[in-house]
């Protein structure tokens, strides 16, 4: 499962980038903050 999850990290980052753009467009600061946190989590996971 770990390998499978790690392989999907680029897909997850792409989706989060799309979500981030959406939240920024509509001015949803909480959504933006949560998405930035999620991006950080994925990037941290990639280091391990």
Number of domains: 1
Derived structural class: mainly alpha
Helical region count? 3
Indicate the low-confidence ranges by residue numbers: none
Report the order of strands and helices. HHH
Structure overview:
- This protein is mainly alpha-helical.
- The protein has one domain (2-47).
- Helix content is 90%, strand content 0%.
- The protein is built from 3 helices and no strands.
- It is elongated.
- The two termini are 14 Å apart.
- The mean pLDDT is 89.
Short descriptors:
48 residues; 0% strand
Task: Summarize this structure briefly.
The protein has helices at 2-7, 9-26, 29-47. With 48 residues, it is mainly α. The chain has one domain (2-47).
Q: What topology does this entry show?
A:
Elements lengths: L1 H6 L1 H18 L2 H19 L1
């Amino acid at each position: 499962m770990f390998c499978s999850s790690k392989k999907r990290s680029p897909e997850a980052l792409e989706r989060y980038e799309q979500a981030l753009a959406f939240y920024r467009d509509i001015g949803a600061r909480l959504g933006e903050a949560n998405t930035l946190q999620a991006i950080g989590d994925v990037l941290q996971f990639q280091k391990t």
